[in-house]
Design brief:
It is a single chain. By secondary structure, the chain is an alpha+beta fold. It is built from 10 helices and 20 strands. It is elongated. 21% of the residues are buried.
């Protein structure tokens, strides 16, 4: 329903759990509404905007990108979400270092031409404040913006100076985003694809600066600025590609785990793996069909099986191999158990030792099935 249940604030490097009475209702914020529309496993990435607390833009301004994913309970019902706020100041710190090494001004724009980082703080985040909608790069430099908004990278010379730019696509294919909303309690106007979610990194050398620094090596200096932008854009792309590869590896691992679970959990016979210490590492759910006790009972009490063995067969079972054997040592025994309901059953037991590729003893792999003794 949008009410915060748990919140931890970064608090300038001193993390703090927010007291329960200070938790807030986020049900009308666009990122809550957009995330609640997602399916299991999908991730919402918000636009780069300013943090809003209790209906107002937080001061001092806190640029954030929100990563959110819905949470589901064991019955598959949507029960809330987890949100991570990434502080955009980390990005701007890197741009400030870059700005100090260039003649021009380093600007960062969103897909609509608004300043995320500008030469004056008054120009930044114009879309977040009523009356500042025209405070944007596209209005200040319309000729340059026409080229920058339609090209991935390049250089533009205009009466306002020299512009070098690259385009950054931070949103990976498959992630969800939207236009967001500058208003505290308003819905997003539209969804955004990974192609539409872009930032423009621009180096602007004003005309007066060009004239002041005009010398034989100017073209090399401007080229160096452009190369710096390309390097930074490449760095962002490499980080994005690494994240994508990690996601693919996690998906493949999940697929393999699902394959194992299907093969192991849906066996008719009772399958198990007992570690070298005698504890159960895995027990299939079919143990409950045979004994009346589920996997958790055997994992909590490794000696439970002996407690179920019929007294007349106990000596036979206790003589069962319980030490390290060769790979060919397979044990077959038949014995009776008394189930949780008091029923007497005959069990056909087969087990063998298992070893790692390096030859380390990993325990015993066993199978127990019910049969009707005559």
């Amino acid at each position: 329903n949008g009410m915060e249940l748990v919140r931890v604030d970064w608090n300038y490097g001193k993390p703090m759990v927010v007291p329960r009475h200070q938790l807030q209702d986020k049900s009308k914020r666009y990122y809550f509404l957009d995330t609640m529309n997602l399916s299991k496993g999908e991730i919402f990435v918000s636009p780069f905007d300013l943090n809003i607390e209790r209906g107002e833009v937080e001061e001092p301004k806190k640029p954030v990108i929100r990563f959110a994913t819905p949470v589901f309970n064991k019955d598959g019902e949507k029960s809330g979400m987890v949100i991570l706020n990434f502080l955009g100041s980390h990005l701007f710190d890197d741009l400030t270092k870059l700005d100090d090494s260039t003649v021009g001004n380093i600007l960062m724009l969103n897909q609509d031409g608004f300043y995320l980082r500008g030469t004056k703080s008054a120009d930044e985040w114009g879309f977040m404040f009523p009356g500042k909608e025209n405070n944007n790069f596209s209005r200040h430099y319309p000729q340059a913006w026409q080229e920058i908004s339609t090209q991935e990278s390049g250089q533009v010379v205009s009466p306002e100076g020299f512009f070098s730019f690259v385009t950054i696509h931070p949103l990976f294919e498959g992630l969800k985003s939207s236009t967001g909303s500058p208003e505290a309690y308003a819905k997003s106007t539209a969804s955004l694809s990974s192609r539409d979610y872009v930032w423009k990194l621009v180096s602007h050398v004003p005309s007066h600066a060009l004239n002041a620094y005009l010398h034989p090596y100017l073209i090399h200096f401007i080229g160096a600025n452009f190369i710096l932008l390309i390097i930074m854009g490449a760095g962002c792309w490499l980080a994005a590609d690494a994240w994508r590869r990690r996601r693919e590896a996690e998906a493949e691992l999940k697929k393999e785990q699902e394959k194992f679970r299907t093969l192991a959990d849906f066996t008719y016979d009772w399958e198990y793996w007992m570690g070298p210490d005698g504890g159960y590492i895995y027990t299939s759910p079919s143990s409950e069909r045979i004994t009346g006790y589920g996997p958790q009972a055997f994992q909590q009490d490794p000696g439970l099986l002996l407690k179920l063995v019929h007294p007349d067969d106990l000596q036979k079972v206790t003589g069962h191999p319980n030490r390290e054997y060769s790979e060919k040592d397979v044990c077959h025994i038949d014995f009776r158990i008394v189930t949780a309901t008091g029923e007497e059953k005959w069990i056909a037991h087969v087990c063998r030792p298992v070893f790692s590729e390096e030859g380390c003893f990993l325990g015993r792999r066993g199978q127990q099935s019910r049969y009707y003794h005559t």
